[in-house]
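Example 3.2
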Amino acid sequence: MSASAAVTARVAKETSSRNSLKTFLSRYFYFCMSLLMTALVVWSFSRTVDAGLFHAKPRRPLLLWFHGAAFSSWMALFIAQSGLVRLRRVSIHRLLGWFGAGLATIMVVLGCTITVVMTRFDSRVLHQKGVEAFMSIPFTDMILFGTCMALAIYWRKKPEYHRRLVFLATCQLMDAAIGRFDFWYNHNLFYAGLDLLIVAAMARDWLVDGRIHKVYIRALPAFVVLQGVAIYLWRANPPWWQGLTQALLAW
């Protein structure tokens, strides 16, 4: 084989590999990410759920069980919806989508309520100090999750917007899983961990479409800013935030 023929063959092979990668990312990225995030949730919570819920002493509030069931159901639904898109079962996907909209609404209400309930429990029953400031983290999660889901429902007929917004909403829930690992929690890196998932989606867009979708371009900076504010409120606990958390806990 001549040198020119060898170069041509190598270029053709590299082009074929790139096209195969693009095809795979185009079709299966979101489904694979749903599996990855669910595996992360299972792995992280398996390290703490027994002592923190199943055989906790003292027993945790009953509402925590409903909270766990709702958020676990969301991860199962996320996998199912991603799979249905790949199987082109659009009618079933849309039907389950309305269930997902209702579940997301329940999750926001549950998330905010359980934040107050568990903060009271940690403070008054477990006698933990300074736990009130941490309320900024789950409240921020619910704000970002709820906003993304509201926009996803609004743009449900625009798949390129819809799927990215649902993905963003789910990513924001991942801090609860990433924060189960001491290094990420102690160094305030659990938000950075979930933002890396968003960056992976942006890289997917760049490789497949040659550009990053504007949903990610606009959402990621907003996420980072609000996440930064949440970390500040938690760690600095300014007087006005202390007053607000005490007012919430007094209800």
